[in-house]
Amino acid sequence: MADALFDKYGGFKFVSRIVLSFYDKVLDSDQVGDHFDGIDMPRLIDHQTKFIASLLGGPISYSDERLKRAHASLNLTHDDFDEVRRLLSETLADHGIEPQDVETVMAEIEARRSSILSDDAS
Fold first, then answer.
1. Half-sphere exposure of residue 8, counting CA atoms within 13 Å on the CB side?
2. Does the structure show a pLDDT above 90 at 15?
3. How far from 55 is each of 3, 5, 117, 120, CA to CA, in Å?
4. CA dist., res. 32 & res. 69, Å (int)
5. What residues contact 8, with CB distance under 8 A and at least 6 apart?
């Protein structure tokens, strides 16, 4: 399944376009846009491209521990997570990813909620 999604949609070139569109939406979001003030966006986009590729079954993987470390100081809430999840789902659909494949990716994101949010997230 997962390998098929990465290959099905064109690999890194396609994922890169998704991530650029996704961050256009994220940075415009009143809910989460401020979290990215002062962030090295080219570096983040590179990491996010690899992460989204991994969710589609690409050649890179991210451990739960790595996700925890990357997000530990951000104090993200469940509402923040839900907003980013919504924006990603919307972006995937905007780029022609089939609804059942969007659901598959969203399930992968949801499975990582506890690794992305701190233990005391509200």
1. 13
2. yes
3. 9, 9, 18, 25
4. 19
5. 101
Closest among 11, 112, 121 to 62, alpha carbons compared: 112
pLDDT tens digits, residue range 23-56?
Answer: 999 999 999 999 898 889 999 999 999 999 988 9
Tokens standing for residue 17: 């376009």
DSSP of the chain: -HHHHHHHTTHHHHHHHHHHHHHHHHHH-TTTGGGGTT--HHHHHHHHHHHHHHHTT-S----HHHHHHHHGGG---HHHHHHHHHHHHHHHHHTT--HHHHHHHHHHHHTTHHHHS-TT--
Give me the amino acid identity at 81. Answer: F
Distance CA 42, CA 40 (A): 6
